[in-house]
Specification:
Blueprint: E1 7-15, H1 19-34, E2 41-45, E3 59-60, H2 63-68, E4 79-82, E5 86-91, E6 96-98, E7 112-114, H3 116-129, E8 133-136, E9 140-145, E10 152-157, E11 160-162, E12 168-173, E13 177-185, H4 192-201, E14 212-221, E15 235-240, E16 249-256, E17 260-268, H5 278-287, H6 289-294, E18 299-309, E19 320-321, E20 324-326, H7 342-362, H8 367-370, H9 372-378, H10 381-388, H11 392-396, H12 401-412, H13 458-464, E21 477-479, H14 482-493, H15 497-500, E22 506-510, E23 517-521, H16 531-535, E24 541-543
Parallel strand pairs: 1-2, 1-13, 2-8, 5-15, 13-20
Antiparallel strand pairs: 3-7, 4-7, 5-6, 9-10, 10-13, 11-12, 14-17, 14-18, 15-16, 16-17, 19-20, 21-24, 22-23
Length: 557
């Protein structure tokens, strides 16, 4: 159907309200003021507020923040705590061993423990004060191109008020065409618009595939006399149980304000067992005697989930195209060995801002002029830091002794290891066929495990994430062939979507009379983690943005 759409012109448009886009927008406005150049800059965010979809560990190296805003403390930057001492543990089934030597890239003493949602909201306020037009509740749905079909000219936001059949309802609002000389993509890991750009402009040509981890995180209220009241360390990382040593992943526990802790567990999506349930692994981690002793008598206040791009340097796309640049998680900006992405994402946004300013001074916005960003990246400490972890995820995916041989060699050779460029297999292709019957696969934890206070089930977690979606809209989760799901995938892999989704979006129902199976979707439960888009073994699931303003409503994560 032909729809008349409003068109708004900007000089620069940032897509996504995470630390990369926000730092980039702030730096761009700082540079514009310094050079006395007037720019119309906009930033759109699909969440209802800046920060409502922001989730991370989060320990932040303040190096970039000090560069961007030297007076950040005077500006009341929302810091939860300062790391006093790092603690690193190997967990067995019932025991734990403290690792006496902590790898150099995990030395966090003096760094800041933050809530990324609160931090993003704070950055958003500063960006607004500098003149950035911020539009929360607007989801980028389509990339717009100039007549040559290779120059990005802006973004179309999603229509609102569509019924389940895709037809306009009485409250229909057409999406808006936001036009810009430069569009900055800062969507975070597995950005849907970046996936579309890659199909058209081959930005991942000759690059290794991006790979991911999924993290589930909670904020827990503890009693007054808790572990951290008596411990010198307030930054705890674990590995081993429950995943063992074959599957990458591990847990963290960070002290935050008001007798609260941030606790989380990450699983590398290269795992091979199709019956592995990510949420079950998180619960098993929480119930380990060491961890349960720390969080004893606590109450979960908020929960969420998100994927992290962990592939490293060789998975970074081309950083500039005609009319566009890529920053942050969608561009694989992550210090994977150090488990930190905030400061590197912010730095990528700041480098992009500098390149954009130079492009405006030349009045040219081509791949060549914006490509200065690529050159700046390659000659910065940012590249050096990410480059050291270039083979880290590949080493973690190895089995047995070889894992530690590779990791040890990389540690002493600043990342090279035994092989200069270790190959990566895409996460969707790593599952082994399931053993036994699908009916034999049951959740590890029965209902009695969940007390509704400290140990909560998936649906309670969705509730505590404040996730909201309008029920009568087209599903933003696209299943291309449902028969494939209920037949081939069910028979081969026992429907792993019902286990890798932390929000119970996917269910397989069987008709008792006919024994016919069907896939039941609960898209209103979606946490926007995008695990399904990454891990589905048949690439039969495509995650797209729902209406703007929907999804999680994080306030503490």
């Amino acid at each position: 159907m032909d729809i008349e759409r409003e068109k708004i012109d900007f000089d620069v448009l940032f897509v996504g309200g995470g630390p990369a886009s926000l730092a980039g927008a702030i730096r761009l406005m700082q540079l514009a003021r310094k050079k006395n150049i007037s720019l119309e800059v906009a930033l759109i965010e699909k969440g209802t507020d800046i920060g409502s979809h922001a989730l991370s560990g989060a320990i932040m190296n303040p190096v970039t923040l000090k560069e961007l805003l030297p007076d950040f403390l005077e500006r009341q930057c929302p810091i939860e705590a300062t790391v006093r001492r790092d603690e690193f543990y190997f967990l067995t089934g019932n025991g734990h061993y403290r690792i006496p030597i902590i790898p150099r890239y995990m030395h966090n003493k003096g760094f800041y423990i933050i809530s990324l949602s609160r931090f993003a909201k704070w950055l958003g306020g500063i960006a607004e004060d500098l003149g950035v037009n911020i539009f929360p509740g607007f989801a980028g749905k389509e990339v717009l191109y100039a007549e040559d079909q290779k120059t990005i000219s802006g973004i179309r936001t999603g229509d609102k008020g569509l019924g389940k059949d895709g037809q306009p309802k009485s409250n229909f609002e057409p999406g808006i065409d936001l036009m810009a000389k430069v569009t900055v993509f800062g969507e975070g890991a597995r950005g849907s618009l970046v996936q579309d750009v890659s199909k058209k402009l081959d930005i991942f040509d000759n690059k290794m595939p991006q790979i991911f981890e999924t993290g589930i995180k909670e904020v827990i209220q503890l009693p007054e006399n808790n572990y951290f009241a008596f411990s010198k360390g307030n930054d705890i990382h674990t590995f081993g149980y429950p995943l063992g040593l074959s599957t990458p992943g591990g847990g963290f526990i960070y002290e935050i304000k008001d007798n609260q802790v941030a606790i989380g567990f990450l699983v590398g999506l290269c795992y091979q067992d199709p019956t592995l349930d990510l949420y079950d692994e998180f619960i098993k981690f929480k119930q380990h005697p060491f961890v349960s002793g720390i969080i004893k008598d606590g109450k979960v206040l908020e929960q969420g989930a998100r994927t992290v791009s962990t592939g490293g340097y060789f998975t970074i796309p081309q950083l500039a195209v005609d009319g566009g640049v890529f920053v942050g998680g969608c561009a694989s900006m992550q210090n994977t060995p150090g488990l930190k992405g905030i400061h590197v994402s912010m730095k990528s946004g700041m480098l992009a801002a500098k390149a954009i300013m130079e492009a405006f001074e030349k009045s040219a916005f081509t791949r060549e002029t914006l490509g200065i960003y690529q050159n700046m990246f390659e000659n910065s400490w940012l590249k050096e830091e990410i480059f050291e972890g270039r083979n880290f995820s590949q080493a973690l995916s190895k089995k047995g002794l070889m894992k530690f041989i590779h990791l040890g060699a990389q540690y002493f050779t600043k990342g090279r290891g035994l092989q200069a460029k270790m190959p990566i297999e895409e996460d969707y292709g790593t599952l082994n066929p399931a053993k036994g019957n699908a009916e034999d696969v049951r959740p590890v934890h029965e209902k009695k495990t969940f007390d509704g206070v400290l140990y909560i089930d998936k649906l309670t977690g969705v509730y505590l994430s404040k996730t909201m979606h309008r029920e009568d809209q087209p599903s933003h989760i696209v299943i291309h062939d449902e028969n494939l799901c209920v037949n081939e995938c069910f028979n081969t892999y026992q429907s792993p979507c019902t286990r890798f989704c932390p929000g119970d979006v996917y269910e397989i129902e069987t008709d008792e009379k006919t024994s016919q199976r069907r896939l039941k979707l609960n898209p209103s439960n979606c946490l926007h983690c995008k695990t399904c888009d990454i891990k589905d073994p048949y690439r039969n699931i495509t995650w797209t943005c729902p209406e703007g303003g929907e999804g999680p409503g994080y306030m503490m994560l």
